Amino acid sequence: MNEARTVSSQVEVAVDPGTAFTVFTEELDLWWVRGPINHHAAGRMRELRCEPGVGGRLLEVYDDDALELAQITVWDPGSLLAWTSSIDDVRTTIHFEQSDVGTLVRVVAEIPAGGQERGGLSWTRTVPKWFPRWVDRRDHEPHEVRDLARLGLAISYAKPAAAARWLADVFGFESPDPLPTAPDPLPESSYGHPWIEFRIGNSSLIVNKRYEERVEHAPIHLPWVYVDDVAEHFRHAQAGGATIVEKLDSPWGLPFYIADDLEGNRWTFAQARPTM
Questions:
Q1: 163 Cβ partners below 8 Å, 6+ apart?
Q2: Judging by DSSP bridges, how do beta strands 266-271 and 221-227 pair with one another?
Q3: Which residues lie below 8 Å from residue 227, measured CB to CB, with a gap of 6+?
Q4: How far apart are CA 178 and CA 70, in angstroms?
Q5: CA distance 34 to 51
Q6: What architecture (CATH level 2) is domain 151-271?
Q7: C-alpha span between 52 and 237 (Å, rounded)
Q8: Selection from 45, 62, 236, 77 nearest residue 148 by Cα
Q9: What CATH code is assigned to 5-137?
Q10: Is the pTM of this model over 0.90?
């Protein structure tokens, strides 16, 4: 049996606890970053919603239904927010505490003995890196969801961590996530190579690991195109003679496939969200 464990993180934001609580809950869909791997059903998601009060729900909202992520158990504006996960056994508490800067936001996630984790711990990772960015911007930016453009680009590098740091330092590219500080090769996770992504406007630039030696004409630039119906797009491409490199699948919540065109250029096609 797995032992009980606790995972925590914290970040300071320059607003008072009452404002921090309001922004966290009412503007959840504005500070949570849209991306290919940041939702359970990224190709269907329309909105991330927090229903107020004890008994309220955290929801990933789709066109015709919704996924309940959690149920709220404590609702104390300006002080405390807590919920129990509906997708695993994680219990999460968010503390809003007065600090010299404004508010210290502490995220504490508990997994009971024998409990399972299937995404409930993500709040301990996302709050420190995404929440303060929106708090800093919200007074001078429109309160509108910033979704991804329909065209993105992935580039493969032999040393992706070093390449990402170079792109940030030399070209000034910005990432919604902290860049890896460890040297290459980065350790593989259960989901594959660690995700590295930059944002250029609302376009996504993904830094991939190159698994084979670079040879002449080998594809290292991989356009990402989001389409309305990726299943139909896959059938049409297959019937039209595209070389299918990876069949249509959804390993981390986003349906996509990879194909080569008539001259061997490689493309990824993924399901567009209704808001894209």
A1: 155, 157, 207
A2: parallel
A3: 150, 233, 269, 270, 271, 272
A4: 26
A5: 20
A6: 2-Layer Sandwich (3.30)
A7: 45
A8: 45
A9: 3.30.530.20
A10: no
Nearest 5°: CA angle at 161, between 42 and 107? 55
Domain boundaries, the chain: 5-137, 151-271
Position 61: which residue type? Answer: V
Strand 221-227 relative to strand 151-157: parallel, antiparallel, unpaired? antiparallel
pLDDT in tens, the chain (276 residues): 689 999 999 999 999 999 999 999 999 999 999 999 999 999 999 999 999 999 999 999 999 999 999 999 999 999 999 999 999 999 999 999 999 999 999 999 999 999 999 999 999 999 999 999 999 999 999 999 989 999 999 998 889 999 999 999 989 999 999 999 999 989 887 767 899 999 998 999 999 988 766 556 566 789 999 999 999 999 999 999 999 999 999 998 999 999 998 778 889 999 999 999
Q: In the 8-state DSSP scheme, what is residue 197?
A: E
Q: How far from each other are the two terminal CA atoms of the chain, in whole angstroms?
A: 43
Task: Give 71's DSSP letter.
Answer: E
- Whether 134 and 31 have beta carbons less than 8 Å apart is answered as yes
Q: Exposure pattern of 24-58 as b/e (b: 16+ CB <10 Å)?
A: bbebbbbbbbbbbebbebbbbbbebbbeeeeebbb
d(C-alpha 273, C-alpha 202), whole Å: 14
| Pairing of the two strands 66-76 and 80-85 | antiparallel
DSSP letter at 119?
Answer: S
